[in-house]
């Protein structure tokens, strides 16, 4: 158990005591020397969000920057986590049985000016027009891959294939379909 002290925009510092905190040694996975730790942001009992719930009301937001950026990544808790301003869009998260995941409702995906609607037909053999199922997708910022039903993916994949003007290459691990060779100038040409 530790006492965490955070800088605050409204006070000098905020201290929270009796927070469960641990260290790992010989960790595996996709982490490397550029990472300095991992933080649990799920809804589970040991996540930092759950442990700080009385102080932050379950609210948090973050903005991650590139590893080599001159700008620091930021995480905000409580009332400071509310993001507002011009062109800001909020999407409500849905809590389900699992305390690990955040769910939201996927209505469609746009690539440039092309939009593919998502509906519950992709999860069944029905040909009738169906409405979008609430909380039909898990969002996980720590996962590289996005999984959608194959029928939906086929329609989705065709849009970037038409739009990206670059040489397609095979993924060495055989996992990804949309891999492209980076042009020598480092810029992709697209027709979006």
Automatic annotation (TrEMBL):
Gene3D superfamilies: Acid Proteases. Keywords: Hydrolase, Protease. One of its GO terms (biological process) is proteolysis. Signal peptide: none annotated. It holds the Pfam family TAXi_C. Residues 1-192 form the Peptidase A1 domain. GO terms for molecular function: aspartic-type endopeptidase activity. It comes from the Eukaryota. InterPro entries: Aspartic_peptidase_AS (IPR001969), PEPTIDASE_A1 (IPR033121), Peptidase_aspartic_dom_sf (IPR021109), Plant_Aspart_Prot_A1 (IPR051708), TAXi_C (IPR032799), TAXi_N (IPR032861). GO terms for cellular component: extracellular region. Belongs to the peptidase A1 family. This is Peptidase A1 domain-containing protein.
């Amino acid at each position: 158990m530790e006492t965490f002290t955070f800088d605050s925009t409204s006070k000098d510092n905020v201290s929270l005591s009796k927070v469960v905190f641990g260290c790992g040694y010989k960790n595996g996975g996709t982490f490397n020397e550029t990472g300095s730790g991992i933080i649990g942001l799920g809804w589970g009992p040991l996540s930092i969000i759950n442990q700080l719930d009385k102080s932050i009301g379950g609210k948090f937001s973050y903005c991650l920057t590139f590893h080599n950026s001159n700008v620091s990544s930021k995480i905000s808790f409580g009332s400071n986590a509310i993001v507002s301003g011009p062109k800001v869009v909020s999407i409500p998260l849905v809590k389900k049985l699992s305390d690990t995941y955040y769910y939201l409702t996927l209505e469609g995906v746009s690539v440039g000016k092309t939009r593919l609607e998502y509906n519950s037909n992709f999860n069944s053999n029905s040909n009738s027009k169906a409405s979008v199922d609430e909380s039909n997708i898990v969002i996980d910022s720590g996962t590289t891959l996005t999984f959608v039903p194959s029928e939906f993916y086929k329609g989705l994949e065709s849009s970037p294939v038409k739009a990206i003007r670059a040489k397609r290459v095979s993924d060495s691990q055989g996992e990804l379909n949309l891999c492209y060779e980076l042009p020598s100038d480092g810029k992709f040409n697209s027709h979006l």
